Amino acid sequence: MTTPRPPKAVRRSPSPSPPGQSRRSWTGWGFIGPFAIVFALVFLAPIVYSIHLSLFRDQLIGGTTFVGLDNYEQALNDDQFWASLGRVSLFLAVQVPIMLGIALLIALALDSGRLYGRDFFRIAIFLPYAVPAVVATLMWGFMYGTRFGLVGDINEAFGITLPDPLSTDLVLASIGNIVTWEFVGYNMLILYAALRVVPHSLYEAAEIDGAGQFRVITAIKLPAIRGALVIATIFSVIGSFQLFNEPNILRQLARNAITTDYTPNFYTYSLSFNGQQHNYSAAVAIIMGLITMVIAYVVQLRGMRREA
Amino acid sequence: MTSTGSTSSAGSPATAASPSGHPSGSVHAADAGKDAPRLRTPRRHTPGRPGRSVPLTVLTGLVLLYTLVPLAWLVISATKTQEGLADSSGLWFGDDFALWDNIGQTFTYDDGIFLRWLLNTLLYVVLGAGGATFLAILGGYALAKFDFPGKRAVFAVVIGAVAVPGTALAVPTFLMFSKMGLTDSPWAVIIPSLVSPFGLYLMWVFATEAIPVELLEAARIDGAGEARTFFRVALPLLAPGIVTVLLFTTVATWNNYFLPLIMLKDPDWYPLTLGLSSWNSQAETIGGDVIFNLVITGSLLTIVPLIGAFLLLQKYWQSGLAAGSVKE
């Protein structure tokens, strides 16, 4: 119940169904059953198992013992965990507004009908979404590099020394750039699709009232796509908190700047697969899951409150 | 896939709404009238459409440039040898044109492991994304057109699960699969790919809009069973939605990195993403073969099929996405 969708579901499905449809029967389970079974196996079972794991600890002597909430207590006092959480929060606060801002501007520009070659713009700006995070990171990683990268080229061409994008100070911004590049088109498309279904009558009414382009955007278009904006924001928040692929790949080039506890996910991964601390890792992952859900919920509340 | 091709006409109502007729035309026409002197030239080129703006196009062009420069860099770099990469500027071709040679090397290096990775990826996509799409169609149809006990619970659980970080699930999933003896096998990648909550959501919204209840009722009155009604009546109407979901699940599976990274040890089962990353990190190992030209060419070969699919099918997935977008 953390995204803006459920209220709509409740509103849309049961009530407005015509009398012929609303006979309540088990037939629907025949269709949703297969999904539900696999979902239970790959979503619910791991969550339950994860909670179970987080309550135990592997002792050197005595094997696995029940420790209650000790792992959680340890995580809440874990500086490494808080540092990684701080890092993704900073990332989130800077990268998400930039990405969504650009996406929104492009979506509005496309929707305004004032662009030459609109269809080309739309599809070309979307294309990076089809590029795997691994390839995107390898590509940008090469370009960031001074060996055969663009940064090296620019330095050579202008006889200057640009700051190294892979240095400790800049690597977070460099990751932000990669993520922005990957998802700006995707978000643009979501917002653009929402703009397309704004009813004509609203524009006509605005025209009669003598509203200008800017007024139409602020008074009609933005409120109309608020739902889409909230969804895009929530997905971006979840994505930021889950950050793993980009820092993991980029680490091959910037081993000193990116540590194995760089993001919360990277930290849980390292705990499990390098440190064999499965129980503690499960507790950290659950805390991150809860934080993500709370923030997604807050975004939803804020987004929806303005509507009232 | 085949069923969607034959029934593409079902998508035309939705398609017609998006590409040409612009809803806000009237407003812009009024605006254009106000700014008539400035916009006269563009209007002459494209009569009957809202006034085009050069500054706006240029501004959008900057974002386009940002999007395309890295892709251009990749294409250009794929034509260079290892030495050429170091010698020449990243944004122009070097003296050596080694694209074909690079492609040949990519496919033959290490006994042709790249081809194996490509086939693995295809296997994961066909079974994983194909299966995920099928389950999403069935589930979305159920949510849209049936009322059944526990429907709200199903919905709440699925939506709640979307917010759970994938990586939070990865470790317990790995441990579970490892107990079941599934790790280091293709099943470890395919089974988790079968569930796409986003696909389910998209199919549910799409089915709500695209299938008239009367049509289902008519089929039932004619004596068609539920399965027959679904396959003969509902499925064809869902075609644009299916293409959309299939493309998005394909991207998710094709681009998947974290799951295979955790589940697979044997490079013979790697997908392309994991394989490329292992080639890249090879340079780090002492005495490892440095093959950046193959990493780059392999990256290009990895993205070409997906970009091709998006371009070829854009009419279908864009209309599907528009129908599945948030209508208030």
Walkthrough of the structure:
The complex is a heterodimer of chains A (308) and B (328). Chain A has helices at residues 5-12, 27-54, 70-76, 79-112, 118-126, 133-144, 150-158, 171-196, 200-208, 213-224, 226-241, 245-250, 264-273, 278-305, and strands spanning 56-59, 63-66. With 308 residues, chain A is mostly helical. Chain A has a two-stranded antiparallel sheet with strand order 1-2. Chain A is globular. The two termini of chain A are 19 Å apart. Chain B is mainly alpha-helical and 328 residues long. Chain B is built from 18 helices and no strands. At the A-B interface, α1, α2, α4, α5 and α6 of A face α3, α5, α7, α8 and α9 of B.
Give the N-to-C terminal Cα separation of chain B. 31 Å
Largest sheet of chain B: none
Radius of gyration of chain B: 25 Å
How would you classify the helix and strand content of chain A by structural class? mainly alpha
| Helix-strand makeup class of chain B | mainly alpha
What is the β-strand count of chain B?
A: 0
Mean pLDDT of chain A: 84
- Low-pLDDT windows of residues of chain A: 1-21
* Shape label of chain A: globular
Share of helix of chain A, binned: 55-70%
Biggest interface and its residues per chain?
A-B, 129 and 125 residues
Distance between the termini of chain A: 19 Å
Helix content of chain B: over 70%
Shape of chain B: globular
- SSE string of chain A, helices as H and strands as E: HHEEHHHHHHHHHHHH
The number of distinct helices of chain A, counting runs of at least 4 residues, comes to: 14
Mean pLDDT, all residues of chain B: 79
Low-pLDDT residue spans of chain B: 1-49
The side-by-side strand order for the widest beta sheet of chain A comes to 1-2
Question: Treating each run of at least 4 consecutive H or I residues as one helix, how many helices of chain B?
Answer: 18
